[in-house]
Design brief:
This protein is α/β, with parallel strands linked by helices. It has 15 helices and 12 strands.
Length: about 375
């Protein structure tokens, strides 16, 4: 890929200055330099996301080498909180998010249908697959698998689940052992869980609901992946279902990570299309556009991969990251991937689904 160097000189205090080189792909428009210049008069970026600092670190560090004047602050929130907080702040004078990132796909669907995100046409748009641009102003930042996790000491080799069905069999064979020892995102309290479980059970149909009812009373729901993994590592839980890969993959490399194991479910691996958008009310639109373009670029996708997310561009070198969308399709089989996208029915059916979900978890 060819590159054009955009050179800009920015003034620093005490009459010093330096030259920053921002390299952008050669298919970017000629006036892209105007976007860069305009960003220097803005006040940085605030990002609300359901991503941890370690997920963001590689991409932000690299972005700031080209755009050192754009200070980025990230807040790690639950998927639903990303949106409820931004919506609550939208009518006030308080500093709020410029960019939103989450797996609350019901909210992204609503935003897309109602035009609540900035209608920005990224120059990267034509280089993305169709699923990555579901609505005007709404993009996909990553395609993250939801896996089954387990405590490797308490579930030794040969006694570990390979999918939901195998976990259901293990748990129903030894109900006392698994009582209160299985966790997942609570679809009644968590937008991420709602999107994941609505899509999964819609794909699996009656069999999926039967399996959920069989282990429902053994499940203790959580609202975040990090606590799930920590409680599995401590032995409070034996296993977790539909745990976000971005919470488990970096954890495996940390001290004590060997106590955790994971598998891509052999009876259907959910893949979360994590939404991304620029708030329509942002006061820093040029900085936000620069960062969104970078996230969607080949370089940005590679770096979010280094941060534990799963890039989906077909020009990302899998040897540079843990997994790619294409690599997971090869591991589990494309037909075994359950794509958690942006179906309007997720909004329309949410209330009835949650009622059915709660009944399944309280089945006798």
């Amino acid at each position: 890929m060819g590159f054009r160097q955009l050179t800009s000189i920015i003034g620093l205090s005490f009459a010093t200055s330096f030259t920053a080189f921002a390299e952008v792909p050669d298919y970017y428009p000629d006036n892209y330099k105007d976007l860069i210049e305009a960003s220097k008069n803005e006040k940085g970026l605030v990002i609300y996301s359901n991503m941890a600092d370690n997920n963001w670190q590689p991409v932000i560090e690299s972005f700031n080498k080209s755009y050192p004047w754009i200070k980025i602050e990230t807040l790690d929130l639950g998927s639903g909180t990303v949106h409820s907080r931004w919506e609550a702040e939208a009518g006030s004078n308080s500093r709020t998010a410029d960019i939103l990132v989450s797996g609350a796909n019901d909210r992204w669907t609503r935003y897309g249908l109602n035009g609540e995100m900035l209608a920005y046409e990224s120059p990267e748009k034509e280089h993305l697959p169709e699923f990555a641009k579901p609505y005007e102003g709404v993009y996909v930042v990553s395609t993250d698998p939801l896996v089954i996790t387990y405590n490797t000491a308490l579930l030794p080799e040969g006694k570990r689940p390979t999918g939901v069905s195998s976990l259901v069999k293990m748990a129903t064979d030894e109900p006392k052992k698994f009582k209160g020892k299985i966790t997942t995102y609570d679809a009644a309290r968590n937008s991420f869980g709602l999107a994941a479980w609505w899509t999964t059970l819609n794909a699996k149909g009656d069999k999926g609901w039967e399996e959920l009812r069989a282990i429902g009373p053994m499940i203790r729901g959580e609202t975040s992946g990090g606590p799930m993994n920590e409680k599995i590592a401590s032995g409070e839980y034996l296993a977790g279902i539909a745990v976000s890969g971005i919470t488990i993959f970096p954890r495996l490399e940390q001290p004590g990570g060997k106590i955790l194991g994971f598998t891509f479910p052999d009876d259907g691996t959910p893949v979360m299309l994590r939404g991304l958008g620029i708030a329509k009310n942002t006061n820093n639109p040029n900085s936000a556009k620069l960062f969104l373009d970078y996230l969607l670029s080949n370089e940005g996708q590679t770096l979010i991969g280094k941060g534990g997310l799963t890039p989906y561009r077909d020009d990302v070198d899998e040897s540079e990251v843990r997994y790619t969308y294409q690599g997971i399709a090869e591991i589990v089989g494309a037909d075994n991937m359950i794509i958690v996208g942006f179906d309007k029915a997720l909004i329309d059916e949410a209330s009835s689904f949650v009622e059915k979900w709660n009944a399944a978890l309280n089945a006798k």
